[in-house]
Amino acid sequence: MIVKIILAVPVVIAVLLILIGVFLHINRTRLGIQTVGIVTGISKLTKTHLKVKMDMESPIVKYTVKGQEYTCPSVKYQAEGITTYKKGQKINIRVSRRNPRVFAPVKSGGTAEIFLIFGGIFMIIAYIIMYIRYF
Domain boundaries in the chain? Predict the structure, then answer.
């Protein structure tokens, strides 16, 4: 009996992984107002981290939220050369509901969520196989 309870611990962990993955997915896709903006320029910033200077860049985007037009840089700066934003390019952005001047480009990924969800599912399937085979 105790062995079965101990073997059930991976199922609890798997359910937690799945729930965290679903929460991250909802958080990434539902929070903020999603819209399309047009890149009007690139904002540059030099940042020092552990005595190493890094050139950072962020797109300056023109977008409309609730009938009002905004033009401002993204709050997310990335190392120069990582992204290739071009003037006139349309990009998907997520705008803060509280402050429409705060936005971030929408990432197409969600790799962490996928690993968490499928890792949890894999753990449950592995538990079922072990339970059927050994008990």
Answer: 2-134
Centre a 10 Å sphere on the Cβ of residue 1 and count the other Cβ atoms it contains.
Answer: 5
Q: How confident is the model at residue 108 (pLDDT cuts 50, 70, 90)?
A: low
3-state secondary structure of 114: helix
- Structure-block tokens of residue 10: 């991976």
Burial of 4 (0-12, 13-18, 19+ CB in 10 A): exposed
Dist. CA 132–CA 135, nearest whole Å:
6
Give the burial string for 14-51 (b: 16+ CB within 10 Å, else e).
beebbeebeebbeebeeebeebebebeeeeeeeeeeee
Residue 73 binned pLDDT confidence (cut-offs 50, 70, 90): very high
CA distance 122 to 24: 19
Surface-to-core class of residue 124, CB atoms within 10 Å of its CB (0-12 exposed, 13-18 middle, 19+ buried)? middle
